[in-house]
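Consider this today:
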Amino acid sequence: MLMSTTVCPLLAKCLTAAAAALQLACSSPEVKLAGAPAIVKAVGKAQHGVASIYTDHRTASGERYSRHAFAAAHKSFPLGSKVRVTHLGNHRTVVVRINDRGPYIRGRIIDLTPAAAKELGFGYKQGIAKVKVERL
């Protein structure tokens, strides 16, 4: 059965509006779910704060913790995302993958594995460092 000529233009308008809404939603830098906090931040937007070293425990992603991996814990970046961490004291950088949630201490923005912290030039003796974090 063929559609009448009055229905086709209406269908075309609806499809065009739906496509525009989908494009707008996909281009938004933040994704918000109803009743849930935004967990996806704008790519490339830098955060400044304190990094610390975290130790052996079960990760939120379910993978086994490795002190030798270049991994980190962040409160809101999606698990599996990559971030560049820059030590503001010596300007050394490292790229790590987010595989856990945290840190849970006020003022800290990221927890790094010992290998990542060593690459940045701080260790257990210093414990913390001022850093810039950028999602790649």
